[in-house]
Amino acid sequence: MKGVILAGGTGSRLMPLTKVTNKHLLPVWNKPMIYYPLEALKSAGVKDILVVTGTNHAGDIFTLLGSGKEFGVKFTYRVQDEAGGIPSAISLAEDFVGDEKFISINGDNIIFESLKEFAEDFEKGDEEARIMLYNGTREEAMKSGVAVMDKDKVTELIEKPKDPPSNLISIGIYMYSPNVFDIIRKVKPSARGETEITDVNRDYLKRGMLKASMLKDKWLDAGDFEDLLHANKETRKLEDE
Question: Domain total for the chain?
Answer without folding.
Answer: 1
